[in-house]
Design a protein that fits this description.
The chain has 117 residues and is mainly α. It is built from five helices and no strands. The longest helix is centred in the middle third of the chain and has 51 residues.
Length: 117
């Protein structure tokens, strides 16, 4: 993904997009002429491919960003859930048992009192 980000951010990328646009329009001009069926389909495919080449990097990066945001939200929700579980016992008679059980289960010890608030 980093390679794709570097490509889109490179100084040459706008020139590449401009070239693709020119190639697309040249092929669109061919479509406006009377062509045999097979040539017409060929030029339709070329125009579609050029259009996809123009849009694809941006679409991929947007989808990756969306998936990363989703994964980060899931990690935050898990951390908040664990924090809420620990703070449910804070300042109760069961706090010492919770600390002892958390250490014994291998999940580590709960955070200190100041960190839970």
């Amino acid at each position: 993904m980093e390679a794709l980000r570097h490509l889109v951010q490179s100084p040459q990328y706008p020139s590449y997009l401009e070239l693709l646009e020119r190639v697309t329009w040249q092929n669109v001009e061919q479509l406006t002429k009377a062509l045999p069926h097979d040539q017409y389909l060929f030029y339709c495919g070329v125009v579609f491919a050029c259009r996809r080449l123009t849009e694809l990097p941006t679409e991929i990066l947007a989808k990756v960003t969306e998936l990363e945001d989703h994964a980060n939200a899931r990690a935050r929700a898990t951390a908040e859930s664990q924090s809420a579980q620990g703070s449910a016992f804070l300042n109760t008679p069961w706090w010492d048992s919770y600390v002892r059980d958390a250490a014994a289960s291998g999940n580590g010890t709960p955070r200190d009192f100041n960190a839970l608030g």
